[in-house]
Write a structure and sequence with these properties.
Elements: H1 19-22, E1 32-36, H2 41-52, E2 56-61, H3 64-77, E3 83-87, H4 93-105, E4 112-115, H5 132-159, E5 163-168, H6 194-218, E6 223-229, H7 247-252, H8 254-260, H9 264-267, H10 269-276, E7 287-289, E8 292-294, H11 303-322, E9 333-338, E10 341-346
Parallel strand pairs: 1-2, 1-4, 2-3, 4-5, 5-6, 6-7
Antiparallel strand pairs: 7-8, 9-10
Helix pairs in contact: 2-3, 4-5, 5-6, 6-11
Length: about 350
Protein backbone atom coordinates (compact mmCIF):
# COMPACT_ATOMS: atom_id res chain seq x y z
CA UNK A 1 0.00 0.00 0.00
CA UNK A 2 1.12 3.54 -0.73
CA UNK A 3 1.23 4.61 2.90
CA UNK A 4 4.31 2.47 3.50
CA UNK A 5 6.35 4.44 0.91
CA UNK A 6 6.90 7.62 2.90
CA UNK A 7 10.48 7.96 1.65
CA UNK A 8 10.87 9.06 -1.97
CA UNK A 9 13.27 7.33 -4.36
CA UNK A 10 14.49 8.76 -7.67
CA UNK A 11 12.62 12.04 -7.44
CA UNK A 12 12.90 12.81 -3.74
CA UNK A 13 9.11 12.84 -3.52
CA UNK A 14 6.66 10.20 -2.32
CA UNK A 15 2.98 9.43 -2.00
CA UNK A 16 2.73 11.87 0.88
CA UNK A 17 3.61 14.95 -1.17
CA UNK A 18 0.95 17.29 -2.52
CA UNK A 19 0.71 18.83 -5.98
CA UNK A 20 1.81 22.18 -4.57
CA UNK A 21 4.86 20.61 -2.95
CA UNK A 22 6.13 18.80 -6.04
CA UNK A 23 5.83 22.00 -8.12
CA UNK A 24 7.15 24.41 -5.50
CA UNK A 25 9.30 27.14 -7.04
CA UNK A 26 8.42 26.23 -10.63
CA UNK A 27 7.47 29.11 -12.92
CA UNK A 28 5.42 27.71 -15.81
CA UNK A 29 4.29 31.07 -17.20
CA UNK A 30 3.71 30.96 -20.93
CA UNK A 31 2.58 27.33 -21.02
CA UNK A 32 -0.92 26.21 -21.98
CA UNK A 33 -2.55 23.01 -20.74
CA UNK A 34 -5.81 21.15 -21.30
CA UNK A 35 -7.06 19.12 -18.34
CA UNK A 36 -10.01 16.80 -19.00
CA UNK A 37 -12.40 15.95 -16.21
CA UNK A 38 -11.37 19.00 -14.22
CA UNK A 39 -14.69 20.00 -12.68
CA UNK A 40 -13.91 18.16 -9.43
CA UNK A 41 -11.49 15.84 -7.69
CA UNK A 42 -7.89 15.48 -8.82
CA UNK A 43 -8.69 17.12 -12.17
CA UNK A 44 -9.81 20.33 -10.48
CA UNK A 45 -6.81 20.24 -8.14
CA UNK A 46 -4.48 19.69 -11.09
CA UNK A 47 -5.98 22.70 -12.88
CA UNK A 48 -5.69 24.79 -9.70
CA UNK A 49 -2.01 24.05 -9.13
CA UNK A 50 -1.11 24.49 -12.81
CA UNK A 51 -2.82 27.89 -12.79
CA UNK A 52 -1.01 28.77 -9.56
CA UNK A 53 2.30 28.05 -11.33
CA UNK A 54 1.39 30.33 -14.24
CA UNK A 55 -0.02 27.86 -16.75
CA UNK A 56 -2.90 28.98 -18.95
CA UNK A 57 -5.50 26.27 -18.30
CA UNK A 58 -8.37 24.95 -20.42
CA UNK A 59 -10.92 23.17 -18.24
CA UNK A 60 -12.50 20.46 -20.43
CA UNK A 61 -15.69 19.17 -18.80
CA UNK A 62 -19.12 17.71 -19.50
CA UNK A 63 -20.77 20.06 -17.01
CA UNK A 64 -19.75 23.60 -17.96
CA UNK A 65 -21.56 25.08 -14.95
CA UNK A 66 -19.34 23.03 -12.67
CA UNK A 67 -16.38 24.03 -14.82
CA UNK A 68 -17.24 27.71 -14.43
CA UNK A 69 -17.39 27.25 -10.66
CA UNK A 70 -13.86 25.80 -10.74
CA UNK A 71 -12.72 28.73 -12.88
CA UNK A 72 -14.14 31.23 -10.41
CA UNK A 73 -12.30 29.51 -7.56
CA UNK A 74 -9.03 29.47 -9.51
CA UNK A 75 -9.23 33.12 -10.50
CA UNK A 76 -10.17 34.15 -6.96
CA UNK A 77 -7.11 32.33 -5.61
CA UNK A 78 -4.79 33.40 -8.46
CA UNK A 79 -6.13 36.68 -9.94
CA UNK A 80 -3.62 36.57 -12.80
CA UNK A 81 -4.77 33.09 -13.89
CA UNK A 82 -5.98 32.64 -17.46
CA UNK A 83 -8.65 29.96 -17.49
CA UNK A 84 -11.03 28.79 -20.21
CA UNK A 85 -13.97 26.42 -19.85
CA UNK A 86 -15.05 24.27 -22.80
CA UNK A 87 -17.60 21.47 -22.98
CA UNK A 88 -16.27 17.97 -23.58
CA UNK A 89 -18.06 14.64 -23.31
CA UNK A 90 -15.40 12.03 -23.97
CA UNK A 91 -17.97 9.28 -24.51
CA UNK A 92 -19.09 11.05 -27.70
CA UNK A 93 -16.78 11.37 -30.69
CA UNK A 94 -18.91 14.23 -31.99
CA UNK A 95 -18.38 16.09 -28.72
CA UNK A 96 -14.62 15.49 -28.87
CA UNK A 97 -14.47 16.88 -32.41
CA UNK A 98 -16.60 19.89 -31.40
CA UNK A 99 -14.31 20.57 -28.43
CA UNK A 100 -11.20 20.48 -30.62
CA UNK A 101 -12.83 22.82 -33.12
CA UNK A 102 -13.72 25.28 -30.35
CA UNK A 103 -10.24 25.02 -28.82
CA UNK A 104 -8.56 25.72 -32.15
CA UNK A 105 -10.83 28.73 -32.65
CA UNK A 106 -9.20 30.25 -29.56
CA UNK A 107 -5.84 30.25 -31.43
CA UNK A 108 -4.01 29.05 -28.33
CA UNK A 109 -0.78 27.05 -28.28
CA UNK A 110 -0.82 23.68 -26.48
CA UNK A 111 2.12 22.50 -24.40
CA UNK A 112 0.49 20.02 -22.05
CA UNK A 113 -2.43 17.62 -22.57
CA UNK A 114 -3.63 15.86 -19.43
CA UNK A 115 -6.06 13.05 -20.19
CA UNK A 116 -7.51 12.84 -16.71
CA UNK A 117 -11.26 12.17 -17.02
CA UNK A 118 -12.54 8.70 -16.23
CA UNK A 119 -15.62 6.69 -15.35
CA UNK A 120 -16.57 3.36 -13.84
CA UNK A 121 -20.12 2.18 -14.42
CA UNK A 122 -22.47 -0.71 -15.16
CA UNK A 123 -22.81 -1.91 -18.74
CA UNK A 124 -23.91 0.80 -21.10
CA UNK A 125 -23.15 1.89 -24.66
CA UNK A 126 -21.83 5.31 -25.62
CA UNK A 127 -23.59 7.58 -28.16
CA UNK A 128 -21.36 5.87 -30.75
CA UNK A 129 -22.47 2.43 -29.52
CA UNK A 130 -19.18 1.50 -27.90
CA UNK A 131 -18.94 0.10 -24.37
CA UNK A 132 -19.04 3.21 -22.19
CA UNK A 133 -15.93 2.76 -20.04
CA UNK A 134 -13.74 2.00 -23.06
CA UNK A 135 -15.33 4.89 -24.98
CA UNK A 136 -14.86 7.43 -22.17
CA UNK A 137 -11.62 6.38 -20.52
CA UNK A 138 -9.71 5.28 -23.60
CA UNK A 139 -11.17 5.98 -27.03
CA UNK A 140 -12.31 9.55 -26.31
CA UNK A 141 -8.84 10.46 -25.10
CA UNK A 142 -7.25 8.64 -28.03
CA UNK A 143 -9.30 10.74 -30.47
CA UNK A 144 -8.70 13.94 -28.51
CA UNK A 145 -4.94 13.36 -28.54
CA UNK A 146 -4.93 12.51 -32.23
CA UNK A 147 -6.84 15.68 -33.16
CA UNK A 148 -4.63 17.92 -30.99
CA UNK A 149 -1.29 16.41 -31.94
CA UNK A 150 -0.57 18.80 -34.82
CA UNK A 151 -1.20 21.79 -32.54
CA UNK A 152 1.18 20.31 -29.98
CA UNK A 153 3.84 19.66 -32.64
CA UNK A 154 3.52 23.23 -33.89
CA UNK A 155 3.76 24.61 -30.35
CA UNK A 156 6.81 22.52 -29.49
CA UNK A 157 8.69 23.47 -32.65
CA UNK A 158 7.75 27.16 -32.47
CA UNK A 159 8.61 27.67 -28.81
CA UNK A 160 11.38 25.07 -28.53
CA UNK A 161 9.63 23.79 -25.40
CA UNK A 162 9.01 20.10 -24.88
CA UNK A 163 5.35 19.13 -25.12
CA UNK A 164 3.84 16.65 -22.68
CA UNK A 165 0.94 14.22 -23.00
CA UNK A 166 -0.11 12.56 -19.77
CA UNK A 167 -2.61 9.71 -19.48
CA UNK A 168 -4.02 9.32 -15.99
CA UNK A 169 -4.36 5.56 -15.66
CA UNK A 170 -4.64 3.51 -12.46
CA UNK A 171 -3.20 0.48 -10.75
CA UNK A 172 -6.70 -0.76 -11.51
CA UNK A 173 -5.26 -1.75 -14.90
CA UNK A 174 -4.35 -5.01 -13.15
CA UNK A 175 -8.07 -5.78 -12.95
CA UNK A 176 -8.22 -6.06 -16.76
CA UNK A 177 -9.55 -9.22 -18.34
CA UNK A 178 -7.04 -12.05 -18.62
CA UNK A 179 -6.43 -11.33 -22.31
CA UNK A 180 -5.99 -7.62 -21.55
CA UNK A 181 -8.16 -5.99 -24.22
CA UNK A 182 -11.21 -7.94 -25.37
CA UNK A 183 -11.14 -6.69 -28.92
CA UNK A 184 -13.68 -9.29 -30.11
CA UNK A 185 -16.01 -8.97 -27.10
CA UNK A 186 -15.82 -5.25 -26.36
CA UNK A 187 -19.59 -4.66 -26.59
CA UNK A 188 -20.76 -8.10 -25.50
CA UNK A 189 -22.84 -7.63 -22.36
CA UNK A 190 -22.79 -11.35 -21.53
CA UNK A 191 -19.02 -11.11 -20.92
CA UNK A 192 -19.17 -7.77 -19.12
CA UNK A 193 -17.71 -7.11 -15.69
CA UNK A 194 -17.54 -3.47 -14.64
CA UNK A 195 -14.20 -3.85 -12.88
CA UNK A 196 -12.72 -5.94 -15.67
CA UNK A 197 -13.92 -3.30 -18.14
CA UNK A 198 -12.47 -0.53 -15.99
CA UNK A 199 -9.15 -2.38 -15.78
CA UNK A 200 -9.23 -2.90 -19.54
CA UNK A 201 -9.69 0.85 -20.15
CA UNK A 202 -6.91 1.76 -17.71
CA UNK A 203 -4.57 -0.79 -19.31
CA UNK A 204 -5.43 0.85 -22.64
CA UNK A 205 -4.35 4.24 -21.23
CA UNK A 206 -0.87 2.86 -20.50
CA UNK A 207 -0.57 1.07 -23.83
CA UNK A 208 -1.73 4.20 -25.67
CA UNK A 209 0.93 6.35 -23.99
CA UNK A 210 3.62 3.76 -24.70
CA UNK A 211 2.81 3.43 -28.39
CA UNK A 212 2.36 7.18 -28.79
CA UNK A 213 5.77 7.70 -27.18
CA UNK A 214 7.36 5.24 -29.60
CA UNK A 215 5.82 7.00 -32.60
CA UNK A 216 6.81 10.47 -31.40
CA UNK A 217 10.40 9.31 -30.90
CA UNK A 218 10.42 7.84 -34.40
CA UNK A 219 9.26 11.18 -35.77
CA UNK A 220 11.89 13.05 -33.77
CA UNK A 221 9.25 15.18 -32.07
CA UNK A 222 9.97 17.11 -28.86
CA UNK A 223 6.83 15.71 -27.22
CA UNK A 224 6.75 13.09 -24.47
CA UNK A 225 3.94 10.71 -23.59
CA UNK A 226 3.64 9.08 -20.18
CA UNK A 227 1.00 7.43 -18.01
CA UNK A 228 0.51 7.34 -14.27
CA UNK A 229 -1.37 6.03 -11.28
CA UNK A 230 -2.62 8.92 -9.10
CA UNK A 231 -3.14 6.73 -6.05
CA UNK A 232 -6.14 5.34 -4.24
CA UNK A 233 -8.53 8.29 -4.01
CA UNK A 234 -12.29 8.14 -3.54
CA UNK A 235 -13.62 10.86 -5.85
CA UNK A 236 -16.61 11.35 -8.13
CA UNK A 237 -15.07 8.74 -10.44
CA UNK A 238 -16.93 6.19 -8.33
CA UNK A 239 -20.33 7.92 -8.43
CA UNK A 240 -21.75 5.14 -10.63
CA UNK A 241 -20.31 2.38 -8.49
CA UNK A 242 -22.38 1.73 -5.37
CA UNK A 243 -20.16 -1.30 -4.73
CA UNK A 244 -17.09 0.86 -4.21
CA UNK A 245 -18.57 4.07 -2.85
CA UNK A 246 -18.01 4.20 0.88
CA UNK A 247 -16.57 0.69 0.98
CA UNK A 248 -13.39 1.62 2.82
CA UNK A 249 -15.28 3.61 5.44
CA UNK A 250 -17.73 0.77 6.02
CA UNK A 251 -14.99 -1.85 6.15
CA UNK A 252 -12.33 -0.07 8.19
CA UNK A 253 -13.74 3.15 9.60
CA UNK A 254 -12.80 6.70 8.70
CA UNK A 255 -9.51 6.74 10.63
CA UNK A 256 -8.04 3.73 8.82
CA UNK A 257 -9.48 4.99 5.54
CA UNK A 258 -7.33 8.12 5.85
CA UNK A 259 -4.24 5.86 5.99
CA UNK A 260 -5.34 3.79 2.99
CA UNK A 261 -6.54 6.60 0.74
CA UNK A 262 -4.81 9.75 -0.49
CA UNK A 263 -6.51 13.10 -0.28
CA UNK A 264 -7.13 15.05 -3.47
CA UNK A 265 -4.09 17.30 -3.03
CA UNK A 266 -1.86 14.23 -2.80
CA UNK A 267 -3.76 12.51 -5.60
CA UNK A 268 -3.02 15.31 -8.07
CA UNK A 269 0.69 15.41 -7.23
CA UNK A 270 1.95 12.78 -9.67
CA UNK A 271 0.09 14.43 -12.55
CA UNK A 272 1.53 17.85 -11.70
CA UNK A 273 4.99 16.35 -11.20
CA UNK A 274 4.86 14.70 -14.65
CA UNK A 275 3.55 17.90 -16.21
CA UNK A 276 5.96 20.47 -14.77
CA UNK A 277 8.95 19.10 -12.88
CA UNK A 278 12.38 19.48 -14.57
CA UNK A 279 13.28 15.91 -13.56
CA UNK A 280 10.81 14.64 -16.16
CA UNK A 281 12.32 16.50 -19.12
CA UNK A 282 12.99 14.04 -21.93
CA UNK A 283 11.35 11.15 -20.06
CA UNK A 284 8.83 9.35 -22.27
CA UNK A 285 7.00 6.04 -22.42
CA UNK A 286 7.15 5.63 -18.65
CA UNK A 287 4.60 4.83 -15.95
CA UNK A 288 4.64 6.95 -12.78
CA UNK A 289 3.41 6.05 -9.32
CA UNK A 290 3.74 8.34 -6.27
CA UNK A 291 5.90 10.88 -8.13
CA UNK A 292 8.42 8.27 -9.26
CA UNK A 293 8.92 6.05 -12.28
CA UNK A 294 7.49 2.58 -11.72
CA UNK A 295 7.50 -0.60 -13.78
CA UNK A 296 4.05 -1.94 -14.74
CA UNK A 297 3.41 -5.61 -15.45
CA UNK A 298 4.25 -7.45 -18.66
CA UNK A 299 0.81 -6.91 -20.15
CA UNK A 300 1.14 -3.12 -19.82
CA UNK A 301 4.51 -3.19 -21.57
CA UNK A 302 3.46 -5.53 -24.38
CA UNK A 303 4.51 -3.66 -27.53
CA UNK A 304 2.47 -5.87 -29.88
CA UNK A 305 -0.67 -5.39 -27.79
CA UNK A 306 -0.03 -1.62 -27.82
CA UNK A 307 0.28 -1.61 -31.63
CA UNK A 308 -2.87 -3.69 -32.02
CA UNK A 309 -4.79 -1.34 -29.69
CA UNK A 310 -3.54 1.65 -31.70
CA UNK A 311 -4.79 0.23 -34.99
CA UNK A 312 -8.05 -0.91 -33.39
CA UNK A 313 -8.66 2.57 -31.98
CA UNK A 314 -7.81 4.24 -35.28
CA UNK A 315 -10.36 2.03 -37.02
CA UNK A 316 -13.05 2.92 -34.50
CA UNK A 317 -12.52 6.69 -34.63
CA UNK A 318 -12.56 6.71 -38.44
CA UNK A 319 -15.70 4.57 -38.54
CA UNK A 320 -17.29 6.76 -35.89
CA UNK A 321 -16.67 9.84 -38.00
CA UNK A 322 -18.85 8.46 -40.79
CA UNK A 323 -21.71 6.96 -38.81
CA UNK A 324 -22.81 5.42 -35.57
CA UNK A 325 -21.80 1.79 -35.36
CA UNK A 326 -25.36 0.48 -35.33
CA UNK A 327 -28.74 1.98 -36.08
CA UNK A 328 -30.99 2.92 -33.14
CA UNK A 329 -33.19 0.06 -32.00
CA UNK A 330 -30.88 -2.71 -33.18
CA UNK A 331 -28.88 -5.01 -30.94
CA UNK A 332 -25.55 -3.73 -29.61
CA UNK A 333 -22.75 -4.53 -32.04
CA UNK A 334 -20.14 -7.16 -31.40
CA UNK A 335 -16.66 -6.25 -32.57
CA UNK A 336 -15.00 -9.07 -34.46
CA UNK A 337 -11.30 -8.43 -34.76
CA UNK A 338 -8.58 -9.97 -36.86
CA UNK A 339 -5.16 -8.35 -36.57
CA UNK A 340 -5.61 -4.68 -37.51
CA UNK A 341 -9.08 -5.28 -38.98
CA UNK A 342 -12.47 -4.53 -37.46
CA UNK A 343 -15.87 -5.66 -38.64
CA UNK A 344 -19.05 -4.39 -37.00
CA UNK A 345 -21.85 -6.93 -36.84
CA UNK A 346 -25.12 -6.80 -34.86
CA UNK A 347 -25.51 -9.63 -32.38
CA UNK A 348 -28.69 -10.74 -34.17
CA UNK A 349 -26.60 -11.67 -37.21
CA UNK A 350 -24.12 -13.82 -35.34
Amino acid sequence: MWFFSRKGSQSGFSAYNTAEEVTHGIDASGLTAIVTGSSNGIGAETARVLAMRGVQVVIAVRNTSAGMAVKETLVKETPSAKVYVLELDLSSMASVRKFVSEFKALSLPLNILINNAGAICPYKLSPDNIELQFATNCLGHFLLTDLLLETMKWTASRGNIEGKIINVSSEGYKLAYREGIRFDKLNDESWYNRFGAYGQSKLANILHANELSRRLKEDGMEITANSLHPGAIVTNLWHNSSTVSGWLTKAFGSTVEKLLVKNVKQGASTTCYAALHPNVKGVSGKYFVDNNISVPNAQATDTELAKKLWDFSMTLIHQGRKHRLTKPGRSPPLLLVKPYQVKILPLSKI
